[in-house]
Each structure stands twice: as structure tokens, then as C-alpha cells.
Amino acid sequence: MVQANSGADIAVVGLGVMGRNLAANLADHGAVVAGYDLDADRRAAFAAAVPGAVPCAAPEDVLSVLKTPRVILMMVPAGPAVDALLAILLPGLAAGDVVIDGGNSHYDDTRRRARLTAESGIHFVGLGVSGGEEGARHGPALMAGGTVEGIERVAPLLRAIAARAGDGEPCFARIGPDGAGHFVKMIHNGIEYADMQLIAEGYHLLRHLGGFSYEQLADRFAAWNGGELASYLMEITADILRTSDPETGAPILEVIRDAAGQKGTGHWATTTAMQLGMPAPTIAEAVHARCLSALKDERVRAAAAFPAPPAPAVADPDAFAAGVGDALLCGRIAIYAQGFAVIAAGSRQFGWDVDLAAVASVWRGGCIIRARLVDRILDALRRAPDLPNLMFDPAITALLAEGEAGWRRTVGAAVAAGQPVPAMASALAYWDGYRSERLWANMIQAQRDFFGAHGYERTDRPGMAHTQWVR
Ligand code: 6PG
Question: Whose CA is nearest to atom 1 of ligand 1?
């Protein structure tokens, strides 16, 4: 057995592709990494792939091969598996040890686990990890929630393995206490869902209304990726559009069934936004859009029963594509605005004191939603950390003003042709609603008071009022 304080620096429990890649990344940066997985093949793959690896035959064995205080990184599926593993580890842990949950756990679960471990002086760190397999191996974005002391203990390791932003800063930050890191990762995923949906709508409109070939589409997305729309998702979209199916030689998108899957973080982002009373309609629409797409068999039946209206011909494909580009950029602004507003609301609700600029800083590299716009957002938040909404920033307002006409034209053309654009349209409705001094909500208040005597606020004096409605 390895002697205490001459042992491994960190143990990774759960050696699926994310766990194994993080372990290899840690080893690249000089850490001695112990590892355990239920699956013997994964343990063997870990031992083979990670220099200096210390494979363990049982989860509790990691406790004795670690330097003290211990650092354990759990990379197991979110949900009951995390609680089960924690139950195994807890009896052998001591005050000062740090347990990191690097999965996509719900922030409420993280808050509960942080309370549980705090009773024994153990630091629980809820770590949002973004960047997929590649990111885990060569530089993820890392969003940590937990005690200052616990995170300080592991910060040197996490900083070392994190992606670097353009200015060389590591894409790692302590976001706040307990569930703050997982909360921010959840909103990251909500934005990810919404941006993927916007891009998917853009490709679909250009293909089916604009008549663009896959090759032309690939060129168009690659060109966008060289400008204001630059982002990781734009880059992989261009690559996807250029890819052929090795079996049939057909464009790969022609052989992929149009029914989207999901694992739940977009749904959590949506329900959390609703619980906080903070609008995030485009994130919600992206989740709904995946659900609707999954009703493939019903859609096939409905397509035969309810033909779409005849699509007006697109007279100028280049102008049409420019409008789609505007809708993508303005839509992207709206979804980041929604996401940051939900983070600010969560921070107020839970007393986390989240520094939104630190969130933007982490999202500059490594993560799935890294994008040129994130640099603009960071500038905006550095100029005015308390902006109520990102759309108030003058540089961002200028981008919206430039793209607004094209955004409207694109949504209008899609609606006229019966092409669904739920993300582009809901982002526009969010923007239009947000910038409307007077909305329809006076009618809603009147209706509520009419049928339920719920009362309403008047425009001419403070306090609640009620009307004796004539029925
Ligand atoms: C990331 C991703 C990652 C994962 C999502 C996708 O930031 O690296 O968000 O966490 O790809 O879980 O989730 P869906 O399967 O729900 O699309």
C-alpha cells in the first residue's frame, strides 16, 4: 500500500470516457491519479492510457492510496449513482478531504450533498465540466461550486487541466457555494440547447426554402464562423454539412433520422427559470422542439394529413441567407441574455453572489457554447456588472440594431412558408416583449380579477385594487 502523503494526488471514480480523459489530462499536468470503475475493462483502459495510474479494485480502496487530505473526483452518472458512491466513500473520509462531483448533477442535489458532507467537515465541490470528450482530455471549461477552502485546495489542479481563453487565462472559476457551479453548468446546457436549435433552424431554412446545396451550406457556415457568429457550434456545423455517409456516400444529414434525443439538463434549465420567474422562452422552446421532433411517427402521419402552405419562392438566396445570419446572431444574443438573467436570479435566490463576468470568462474557452459573442458579453459585464439584461449593453444593442430587420424578415418568411422556427421566433418575441413599455398584461390582470378576485395594481396609484365586475 502507498504511504499517506506519498500516494496519489487525486482519485477519479467512474472511468467512462469523460473520467478517463480527465484522468489522462490530470496526469499530463503531473498528478498521480488513482482510479476505480465497476467495469474491469475500463479499469484496464485507464491503467493503459494514464501514465503513472494507480488502478484500484474497489471504490473504497481509493481512500488508502491517496495523499491526505484526500481529493476524489466522482465521474459517475448524475442521480442515484452519485448518492450511492458517496455512501460508500463517506465513512472512510475525514475532515478536510475534498469530494468533487464532475457529472451533470442537478444543483439541488449538489446543495443537499454539500450540507450532508459539511456535517463531517468534508468539502463537497459540485463541478460543472463542459467540452465533451475532447475538452476533458485537452482542456475543459470548469465551473466550481463549494466552500472557498475546499475549492482553493483543488484549484491548482483544476486550473492546470482547464482550457485557456485567448488571453491565456484558465477557463476555471469558483462560481459560488454548494450548487452554484452545477447551476451555471445547467444554464450553459440550456444555452447550448437553444443555440443548437437556432443553428438547426437556420440550416433547415436555407436548405428547404433557400434551395442551398450541402456544399454551399458548408461554405456559408464556415464563412459565418470567420465573423461575428464565430463559435464552436458553428464550426462543427460546417464540418457536419461537409460530411458524407461512408456507407452510402449521401450527405450525412440525409441518413440521420430527424428525432432529437436529450438527457435532461435543458429541461432542468427551463423548469428552474420558471421556478425563479425569469423568462427563458428560447431555452424552453429548444427543449419543446426536441420533444416535438421525437414524435416522428405522428409527424409522418400529420405531414400527409395537413400539407404545408405553398412556399413563396426565395427571389434572392444571398439576401435570404444574410437574413438567416442576422437571425442566428440576434437569436444568440437573446439566449445568452436569457441565460445570464436566470443565473443572476438564481444567485439572488440562493445568496450565491455569482460574478457574472467570471462566468463569461470561463465560457470563453473549452466549453460547447464558446463563441465570439462571449467576448462581447465579458466586455459588457466588465463595463457594467449589474446590467439588468445583456441587451442593454451599447455594443450588444448595436449588433441587435444591425440584425433586427433581417431577423424579422427571416421569421416572417418562415411563418409564411409554414416552416417551424421556434427558437428564432421565440427569441424575437422575447426581445419585442422586453423592449415593450406597454404589454397585454393589463388584460390578463383584469381577467384574473374578473373570475378570481385576484386584484390588480393600478397605473395611477400604488397598492392593490379590485373591481366589482358587471357580469
Ligand atoms: C458539455 C455538454 C455535455 C453533454 C450534454 C448534452 O457541456 O460538454 O453539455 O454535458 O453533451 O449533457 O446533453 P443532451 O444529451 O441532453 O443533449
Answer: 130
